[in-house]
Each structure stands twice: as C-alpha cells, then as structure tokens.
Write a structure and sequence with these properties.
26 helices; 3-stranded antiparallel beta sheet; alpha/beta
C-alpha cells in the first residue's frame, strides 16, 4: 500500500501539482484511494478494500466525530493550520469520499475524467475546480453541490434502514433514513447499495443488492418492496459511500451471533465497524460487543480485521465496560484468546495475534503463571516463536502486575543489548505497580532530555489501565505541567506528552471538569486546545458507554 501510494504521487503531486495547501488533501486522498484500488485489482491482496474499511475508514470515522472535525477542503492560512488539519480527515476520509465520487459519476467516467485532467494540466498547477470540471464534462453530473456537501462541510452522516413487513414476511415499505449530528447538519447525496443477506447452509449469503441514490432525510426504495425479508439488511453494501450505518434490531441480533458466517470479508468488516461505532456511541453494550467478538472472530480470515477487532475488544473492556464488569470481561477474553492460540494454525499470523491478546488480558494468577511459563520456555506451543518482541510483551505484562522483578528486567535488557531493548526495559520499569516507579517515570518525562522513541516508551509504561489508583495522583499534576511542556518542547514531543499522559484511564466526571476549568483559565494555543478537547471527548464517550453497559 505504501509503495503504491507513493507511486500514485507521480501523477497527483508531480505531473500535476496543487496550487496551494488548501487542495493538498487531494494529493494524499487520491494516492490512498488508488493504492487500495490497485491492491484489490492488480495484486495478490484482493481483500484490500476490507482492510481499508477496517483500518483507514475506522480512523476517518473516529476523527470525524471529534469536536475538532473539519472539512476535507480547508482554508490553510499558515503553518499552524497545516499542522492541525492534515490528519485522518485529509487521508482516510478524503480517500473514502473519492471512492464515493467514483460511485456517483461512474467508474469509467471517473477514469476518463482523470485522464482528461492529467492531459490538460500536465506539468502545471491546479485547484479543485479544475478536477471537478473535467469530471463534469465526462460524466454529465453537476458536481458543484456534491463538492459543497462532501468537501466543504464536516461531519459524518448515519444511514439506517426502515421497513414494514406483511403477513407473508415480505417488505411492504422500505426506505433509508439519513441523519446528521447537530454540530454538522449537512445531509449528503450518496450513491450506495443495499444488500439482502440470508442464512443458508453455505453461511450468510447475499441474495440481492440494489444500487441507488440516497438524498435527503428519507429515501424510498421501491425495488425492495415485495421482496422476502432478509436475515441481514446491510445499508452501504460494497462500502461505496462514507457514512456510519446502523443495523435494524433483527439484523443486529443475527450479526451478533453469526457474523463469522458471512462468506465474504467485506460485509463482515462493515458489520464489525457498525457494531464498534454503536459501542462508542452508547447504542450497543460493551458486553454485547464482546459476545459478538467471542462468537464471531473465529470465522474471520483477514488478519488485519482480526487485529483491529481484537484491539477494539480490548478498548471496549478498558473504556466502555461498566467498572464492575471489567475483571470478568478481561478474564473471559483471556480464556478465549488462550483457546484460539491453541487452535490456530501453528506459526500463523492469527496465532501470534491471539498470543499477544492473551498476554494483554492476563490478570489472574493462573493466567500470569502461563505467561511466565511461555517466557521461560517451560511451556511451548507448536509454531509460536517467542521472539525478542514477544518476550518483552510478556515481561511487561508480568511486571505491570508485580509478577516480575527488577533483576528480570535487567537480565532481559542485557539479553537484548540494543536501543530497542533499552526502550522496552524503560517501559517495563515505568509499568511497575508502585508509587516510586510512577514518580521516577513522571520525573524523567518532565525533566530529562529524552529522544522521541524513549519518551514514547516511558509513556506507554507509565499508563496502565489496571493501575488507576496509582495514576490518580497525577491528574492534577498533568494540568499543572501542560503549559510548561507546551512552551518548552518541540511540537511533536509536546503533543506526545499532552496526549500520552492525559488521564484517559481515570474515566470520571471530575476529570472532564478539570479539562473545562483548565481551558477556561488558560489561553491555550489552538493546537493544544484541540488535543485537550479531543481527549475530553473520549472521556465523555467512555462515561456514556459505561453507564449504558451498566443498565
């Protein structure tokens, strides 16, 4: 993907170059879009759009729901604006919107318009209007309103199906509802497909897919009236548009219990993404999401989807589970991870992914003892290589639970006498569950001249989700140090400290209040204010989700 992305810049960026930073997003969005299209159609990775949906698009959806969301096209007036605005919106949302543009004007028309654009402006500078004019000429679509909706307005819409059933279980009415958040109330025009999936002996199989334009708050779908009700209705089948989707209650029930039975990876990815977004928006309980993961992830054969989903399962437990459920949920995921490690193909990517998740969730004495046996080599699994990276992962989990000694860290550092080994060792020492370890790491982060990688390693060790009481004393200290750090460090290092040391694991209303008080009393520069507001938003989401999970 990286090679293809950079190769695409030979056209967008080199042959034709944007006139100013306002349109630079198009360089990156186009390169990202084309790189995935080429992977899917011209390489041995045909499931590239599945990975895109689960990784890049997930990044875009998260960024677009933050209070700092901004349009893809932005008025870039200075260098500060450049640093703030080139993010998941620029790359991932932009590429997603280009995929929607292809669906809106037609694939052949899009490619013909691009060829016209390159021929007309070769070795020259352009603006967005130049590209849109070339596409309008070829496709016959007026793109002026499309551009305003998609490129000059922020936020992401939500699409959900609405239907009624007759006595014979056929659809008597069917429509798509479109919603927009109050802060960004644009309702967009979408070219999308609606898929009907049935449970069969061959799994969840698509029976029919209808492609249409969805415009406004309600769009009728007469093509589906009279059709037999499906087990799963999937709005945005084939992932043509950029929008959050919701599943009707019956479809959600089927997906939670049978997601692994889809015989295609892309609808699985879309359902995983929809469920995760529902958890983040307190529309699905974290415990139900965990059930979905435990019952369905075994049927997932795309390692990118496996890794992303497992990372989200850990996030659901850490941030979105009711506090009194966290321990049991973590143990449940650890038990399933151990079973999957033992059942996975020896030496495969899935085996390694599950091994890392088991170590990350190991908290009981029994689980920690098994982690130690893997580290020491007294218990082995066919195909699972305990390499240097995995050894450090196992040791840090033991260290963070007080199940490993300083001498063991020293010995592992001597075994791995590299710069990376020094960073791993520093992270292990910072992860120790003692007040002295936290004080030492905090002092080093604030007072020592650390390299970027050393700083990141210390932060990762300092912040442990199961050490909330040790982290609580640093809530006030955090807000005291932010101005000094922001004014005295380079932009990148200051950002890493502000984001990395934010008390994100102390999910409590008083922390939200402290952010508000700090921002009201300190004239924070725009980039710092943005980082703090984004971290605040994550806390508020976690509070809502925890309340919902407890209900």
């Amino acid at each position: 993907e990286t090679i293809l992305h950079e190769l695409a810049h030979m056209w967008f960026g080199d042959l034709v170059t944007m006139r100013w930073w306002d349109d630079l997003w198009l360089n990156e969005s186009f390169a990202t879009f084309v790189s995935v299209m080429c992977q899917a159609e011209a390489t041995r990775w045909p499931a590239a759009w599945t990975t895109f949906a689960n990784v890049e698009k997930s990044w875009a959806y998260r960024q677009d729901q933050l209070p700092s969301s901004h349009p893809i096209w932005a008025d870039i007036v200075d260098i500060d604006a450049v640093e703030v605005n080139f993010d998941g919106i620029t790359y991932a949302k932009g590429a997603s919107v280009l995929k929607q543009l292809v669906a809106w004007v037609g694939r052949e028309e899009f490619l013909a318009g691009i060829r016209t654009y390159f021929e007309r402006f070769a070795f020259g500078n352009t603006e967005l209007s130049d590209l849109l004019s070339a596409l309008e000429e070829v496709s016959g679509r007026d793109l002026s309103s499309w551009s305003k909706e998609w490129l000059q307005s922020a936020g992401v819409n939500t699409l959900r199906p609405q239907f009624t059933l007759g006595a014979d279980s056929t659809y008597t009415t069917f429509s798509v509802l479109q919603e927009a958040p109050a802060a960004h109330d644009t309702l967009r025009s979408h070219r999308l497909a609606i898929g009907l999936y049935d449970k069969t002996t061959d799994g969840l199989v698509r029976r029919q897919s209808v492609e249409l334009d969805v415009v406004g708050a309600v769009t009728e779908v007469p093509q589906l009236v009279g059709q037999l009700a499906a087990d799963v209705v999937l709005v945005n089948d084939n992932d043509l548009t950029y929008s959050k989707i919701r599943l009707d209650p019956a479809s959600l029930h089927v997906v939670v219990n049978h997601i692994g039975e889809f015989n295609d990876s892309l609808p699985r990815a879309l359902c995983w993404a929809a469920a995760w977004d529902m958890v983040r928006n307190a529309e699905m309980r974290a415990r139900d999401y965990l059930t979905m993961v435990l019952t369905g992830i075994g049927g997932e054969d795309d390692i990118g989807v496996v890794q992303t989903t497992l990372r989200q399962a850990l996030g659901a437990i850490t941030f979105f589970s009711a506090p009194d459920r966290m321990g049991a949920a973590s143990a449940e995921l650890a038990d399933e991870a151990l079973r999957m490690v033992q059942a996975a193909e020896p030496g495969g990517d899935s085996q390694l992914a599950w091994a890392r998740v088991f170590a990350s969730t190991a908290e009981t004495a029994e689980h920690l003892a098994l982690v130690r046996s893997w580290l020491e080599g007294s218990v082995t699994l066919p195909g699972l290589t305990i390499d240097t990276d995995l050894r450090w992962h196992l040791l840090r989990q033991l260290t963070s639970h007080g199940a490993a000694t300083d001498a063991e860290i020293d010995a592992e550092e001597a075994r791995d006498a590299t710069a990376a080994g020094q960073r791993y060792a520093a992270a292990c020492r910072a992860s120790r569950p003692t007040a002295a370890a936290k004080a030492s790491a905090w002092k080093s982060l604030l007072d020592d001249q650390l390299a970027n990688a050393q700083q990141s390693a210390l932060i990762s060790g300092f912040q442990q989700p199961h050490q909330i009481e040790l982290l609580r004393p640093y809530v006030d200290a955090y807000f005291e140090m932010v101005p000094r750090i922001w004014e005295s460090r380079t932009s990148e290092m200051a950002q890493d400290l502000v984001v990395g040391l934010f008390p994100s694991f102390v999910v409590e209303q008083p922390v939200v209040d402290k952010v508000d008080a700090f921002l009201s009393s300190y004239d924070a520069p725009a980039p710092l204010r943005r980082l703090l507001l984004e971290s605040r938003d994550s806390l508020v989401r976690a509070l809502r989700a925890r309340t919902f999970d407890a209900s």
